Amino acid sequence: MKVTTIVSLLLTGIGATVIATSAPASAASFSFDNISGGDTVGDAFASNFSFDVTDNGGGKVLFKFLNNASSTQALKQVAFSVDNSVSGILSTMVLNVGNSPNVLFESKKNTQNLAQSNNISGWNETFGADTKGANSNAVQSGESLGITFNANYNTVLTAINAGTLKLGIHVGSLPNGKSDSYVNSVPTPTTSVPEPSTLFGVGLAFGIATLFKANNDKKWKQEKFKA
Question: Which domain does 117 fall in, by range?
């Protein structure tokens, strides 16, 4: 096999490795914050709750709400606020997708917004869901609730980061029978750093290409002098 063919195959393989190792993830995680100006009874528990956003393929996005509490705190309501500027980014809400066994929610029956949402700037509740039936069907400690929408994954992430799509939850069974609401945190932009494997692949590809060029130059000079 010719040297040029070997080098070509190596570069192709390295290129595929670089692409695979540097491809963006198809899931993102978000936390919840207290609502400024709202109740304070549950302020210490906001960090116990989070949600993941996953590209489910086929034009569907999965929102997975997680209860990471170690006590009896129960997530009983979820709400989605879609700003008019991005109206239509979510459609066809489907509840109870991949839930924990005992979790069961239904579309929100009343027209009231998430409790304390009047303190959330720009809140425009568009979708909502509540626990169906008894408290035992709420998202208890270690459990999760899944909701899918017809949506574009990248568009959804952009809207969350921009604050034009907001998610809120209402949690009960707090100390003394109290409850509180939370709204999602907006992540601080960060500069992504390439994975070490990506850097290695790029460096190796550059090294092989440089060596190949040097060999070609040497061969060209030798043939020139022979002529």
Answer: 24-184
